[in-house]
Design goal:
The protein has helices spanning about 1-30, 80-90, 105-115, 150-160; strands at about 40, 75, 95-100, 120-125, 130-135, 140-145. By secondary structure, it is α/β, with parallel strands linked by helices. A 6-stranded mixed beta sheet has the order 1-6-5-3-4-2, with helices on both faces. Helix 3 (about 105-115) links the parallel strand 3 (about 95-100) and strand 4 (about 120-125).
Length: about 180
Amino acid sequence: MFSNRRNLIILGMALVGVVGLAVIVYLNARPERPIEGVVQFPRPERGHDDTLVFDGLEIPPAGGEHYNIWQNCGIYAESIEAGNAVHSMEHGAVWITYQPDLPADDVAKLEDITRSQSFLLLSPYEGQRSPVVVTAWGFQLEADSADDGRIEQFIERYRLGPTTPELGGACVQGVGVPLP
């Protein structure tokens, strides 16, 4: 009888181990839940062309051909060249843009987010249709204010993310002098 009881205990422990392993595999293999409102663009072409013109776009570009030199990451009070920002995104940066008339407290919140980690760009973007737009290589999110929690979710997922074409590329020693 003792032998049967011991065998049942061993079998039960083995069963618990198998179920536990299956749960761990499932939790690590399941796809991430999509962030509501994020638009994925077809795989953007890559290449350098300093003659490109980006004027008049309603939203910042989410990849594609761009300028030869990247934008130094950080905060800018004035608009920056989209071609340089796209190059920074190719290196893993997230570009946060806002309408120039965005309330000062919203701009301050976006500045705080940008100061909190590397590989972030922040600048006004003339003519964009949404108050705030967050862009990474191939992905974009439009938001109505800096209080939208999806902004930080987007940054967490796509900054230096798995879709970065040139992961390990620089976000310093390019062009531009960000604010302190």
